[in-house]
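[step 3/7] fold_predict: job queued, chain A
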Amino acid sequence: MSLLSGPPTARHILTYAEDLRGGGVERAQLRLARGWLAAGRRVTLAIEDVSGPLAAELPEGLEIITPSRLLALPGVVRRLSPDIIFCPGNFYTGIAAWTRLRLGKACPPIVAKMSNAPARADHGRLMHAAHQVWLARHGSFLDHLVAMTPATAQEAARATRMVGRTSVIPNPPAVVIPGEVPDLPDRFILGVGRLEPQKRWDRLIAALPLLADRTIPLVILGEGSERGAIDAQIQALSLGNRVRLLGHSTDPLPVMARAKVVVLTSDYEGVPGVLREALSVGTPIISTDSSAAVAEIIDRPDRGTIVARDDAAGLIAALDAWLAPSAPRSEPVPQPGADSADRYLALFDQLVRR
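[step 4/7] structure written:
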């Protein structure tokens, strides 16, 4: 059906972000935008800072506008009159609420993706209670919520009181981006993710001196505000010859394929794409129980191990098991989400027709 005839469709999609520093939320956002553009839709990205490692992944044809701050988004919506607004993750729902408040009935439908677990391990009792109150208000300014797995969708629907207005659509799969593969050791542990407090790389680094193999190195792909603290920990533990911080990687899949095991030690996650990416190249994974989705991904013992967040002994035991010479390597698990962009478009069109 032509976009210019028949029932109304979401011909113009507006989405927004703060910057392109390399987060999984923004990376998935750009992959979706690429798919929407390929389907013939107009896509506009409102972003405060267009620089950063993910700038190399901006799809051709994407319209970019750079307001000085995202609080100006209501004015952008008034000027451009998009058919739909896509909020790419939990971090950005405050801007969605602000836009709905300022525009009222003139606001187009807003679809948001639940990118992190509703309950966060870094919240104390008061912060947790306040966060739950905030989540319960989401149904007043969002038209629809998207989660990436059935378990996270159930959690999100209950927390936001949007039962009946929640869908399950996985993130688009990782794509191979040509580039140089760094010089790597023959055997190594791999961590992939931003160097931010949420990821708790200190847990993994602290385990290194206690492993049965006291020589195996750790490679971490990612950049962020915790680099200084991580460097200090490495020096304090005299691990300068075993830990390599290689910064942001546009395509971690080739490095994942060569790793002995991929480890994620986060306090909280939504649906960690790094785990699915590692399994897609047949590399086993170890993860903390950082979200309900982890058990959906590590659904068989030959694919990996789940450990409690603060179980240091459990993390060491899991690492020793997967680093053993006899440890199996699972068959590659295809990533879901090849049709995710189209599924989002079907949802957008449905909301526009209403």
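[step 5/7] annotate
The CA atoms of residues 144 and 165 lie 5 Å apart.
The longest strand covers residues 12-17.
exit 0
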